[in-house]
């Protein structure tokens, strides 16, 4: 027993130390990175990859290098780069600062007598922008952004493609496309266990960046026929790009596992916070904050015609800063265009009446589950199932279909009761989130939240996890020694594993290089003036 305790302690200490390296960007402990020469095969291949939007706006490293190129070009390009920077400040400015930032942008970039005037703006443009400003700032700024984009897409973009900066970009792309194996990471303690294997903490050797690695046992996958679902989960994770859903950073294979590497959520799941830490339930200010992030995540999925189908506090994880993300997209499905689906899926206690009655549905089920989850965060029990109540699922179904939701707990306030009641409407047509043109974000329950700033990560979390606490059960609880003997992997399986193992996910990988400081370390601009072979064909 003592030995187990020591093992656990050692595992926790190593894990906490790695988190600290990541948090404080401790360079000394990283494996240095050198950029390879780009090969012809690395150059962007498809038409979509060669666009200005992809190369200079969407890819974080591409955006940085293009900006650096502009800043070393003629005064017109320098002004354009500075304008884009200030525009992004304006877009995220707090209400009090927004007007001042706009005024500064207008006087610096939209006045012909200013030395940073954007001279590609025609007299017509200037007139229109000044007329719009004050009445509709968004539109005025959009006008300036469009004009700038049109200008940059022309000659500056073509020159960038011939510059050392773009050569450098291709070097980064070469690095991004390397084969990922176990050796790319250090591995730390197990954080949880799922149906096909464990989830453990890992750290990228080059950057110090921590991630969670969900390891799916190949033989177990085959035995239980989970391959198709695993690929589906991977493809959905890869597609979504939201601050409130776990993002996929890498997909690779090792000898025995398929691995999904995602944001590490070191603060534990909301179920743990409701039930395992002190008094049951979560303080109201936190409930509102988490619900706002959950709503934003759900709206992102729905905007891509994806239903989550497994929303519950246990699937909402907190990161080290105290922000939350939806995780476990194993039940999520893409809805066929304009069609409904009819398939029982979800967790007892959170399933909507239309699912229980086996009716056709689309995204409505997630709004019902949100109602259940807000209720649970406040009261430490579900609307139709008490804490630790031993009850048949048929009885939970009956209550869900027939009973009214009761609010006996004193912690329920007016707006909280109201939003839950609207989310728990048994008829889809009356439910919040499902009625024509309604937006749950405008409900008074969320009146303290500025969603635009929330999405940019600019709203301070009401609670921050302690850096010296592991918000997870002991590693011993996750041990699993069962072996799968009667399964043989064949060539068809190998082909599938290869299809799954696509390596680094571009935007995520580039962001990792920038956030960890590795981009700035490696990107020394001594490249300037160096002759360039043209890899662009
Ligand atoms: P399954 O789909 O097999 O249920 P999950 O994706 O739910 O697997 O992961 C299993 C457990 O691993 C979770 O309950 C959680 O405790 C832990 N876990 C999953 N993803 C992460 C993550 N990104 N960060 C930290 N822990 C995680
Ligand atoms: Mg799970
Ligand atoms: Mg799952």
Automatic annotation (TrEMBL):
PANTHER family: G PROTEIN-COUPLED RECEPTOR KINASE/RIBOSOMAL PROTEIN S6 KINASE, RHODOPSIN KINASE GRK7-B. Belongs to the protein kinase superfamily. AGC Ser/Thr protein kinase family. GPRK subfamily. One of its GO terms (biological process) is regulation of signal transduction. This is G protein-coupled receptor kinase. Keywords: ATP-binding, Kinase, Nucleotide-binding, Phosphoprotein, Serine/threonine-protein kinase, Transferase. Pfam families: Pkinase (PF00069), RGS (PF00615). One of its GO terms (molecular function) is ATP binding. InterPro entries: AGC-kinase_C, GPCR_kinase, Kinase-like_dom_sf, Prot_kinase_dom, Protein_kinase_ATP_BS, RGS, RGS_sf, RGS_subdomain_2. The keyword DNA damage does not apply.
């Amino acid at each position: 027993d003592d030995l187990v305790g020591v093992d656990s302690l050692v595992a926790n200490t190593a894990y906490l130390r790695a988190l600290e390296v990541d948090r404080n960007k401790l360079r000394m402990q990283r494996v240095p990175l050198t950029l390879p020469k780009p090969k012809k095969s690395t150059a962007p291949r498809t038409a979509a990859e060669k666009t200005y939007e992809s190369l200079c706006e969407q890819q974080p490293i591409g955006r940085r290098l293009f900006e650096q190129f502009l800043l070393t070009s003629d005064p017109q390009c320098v002004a354009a780069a500075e304008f884009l920077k200030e525009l992004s400040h304006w877009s995220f400015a707090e209400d009090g600062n927004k007007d001042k930032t706009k005024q500064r942008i207008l006087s610096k970039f939209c006045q012909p007598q200013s030395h940073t005037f954007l001279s590609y703006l025609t007299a017509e443009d200037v007139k229109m922008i000044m007329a719009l400003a004050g009445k509709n700032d968004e539109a005025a700024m959009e006008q300036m952004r469009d004009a700038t984009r049109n200008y940059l897409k022309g000659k500056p973009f073509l020159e960038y493609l011939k510059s050392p900066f773009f050569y450098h970009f291709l070097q980064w792309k070469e690095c991004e496309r390397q084969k990922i194996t176990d050796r790319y990471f250090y591995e730390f303690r197990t954080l949880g266990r799922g149906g096909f294997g464990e989830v453990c903490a890992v750290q990228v050797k080059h950057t110090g960046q921590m991630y969670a690695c969900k390891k799916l046992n190949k033989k177990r996958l085959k035995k239980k026929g989970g391959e198709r679902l695993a690929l589906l989960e991977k493809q959905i994770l890869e597609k979504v790009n939201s601050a409130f859903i776990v993002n996929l950073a890498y997909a690779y294979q090792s000898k025995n596992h398929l691995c999904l590497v995602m944001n590490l959520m070191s603060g534990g799941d909301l179920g743990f916070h409701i039930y395992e830490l002190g008094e049951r339930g979560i303080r109201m200010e936190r409930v509102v904050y988490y619900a706002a992030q959950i709503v934003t995540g759900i709206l992102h999925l729905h905007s891509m015609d994806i239903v989550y189908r497994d929303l519950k506090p246990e699937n909402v994880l907190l990161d080290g800063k105290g922000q939350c993300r939806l995780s476990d997209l194993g039940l999520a499905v893409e809805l066929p265009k304009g069609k409904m689906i009819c398939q029982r899926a979800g967790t007892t206690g959170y399933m909507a009446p239309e699912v229980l009655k086996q009716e056709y549905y689309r995204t409505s089920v997630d709004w019902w589950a949100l109602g259940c989850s807000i209720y649970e965060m406040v009261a430490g029990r579900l609307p139709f199932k008490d804490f630790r109540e031993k009850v048949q699922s048929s009885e939970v179904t009956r209550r869900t279909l027939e009973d009214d939701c009761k609010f006996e707990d004193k912690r329920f306030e007016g707006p909280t009761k109201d939003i839950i009641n609207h989310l728990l409407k048994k008829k889809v047509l009356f439910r919040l989130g499902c009625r024509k043109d309604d937006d749950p974000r405008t409900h008074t329950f969320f009146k303290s939240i500025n969603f635009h700033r929330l999405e940019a990560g600019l709203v301070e979390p009401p609670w921050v996890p302690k850096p010296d606490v592991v918000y997870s059960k002991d590693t011993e609880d996750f041990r699993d020694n069962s072996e799968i003997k009667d399964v043989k992997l064949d060539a068809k399986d190998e082909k599938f594993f290869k299809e799954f193992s696509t390596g680094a996910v571009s935007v995520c990988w580039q962001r990792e290089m920038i956030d960890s400081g590795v981009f700035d370390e490696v990107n020394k601009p001594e490249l300037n003036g160096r002759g360039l072979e043209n890899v662009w064909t």
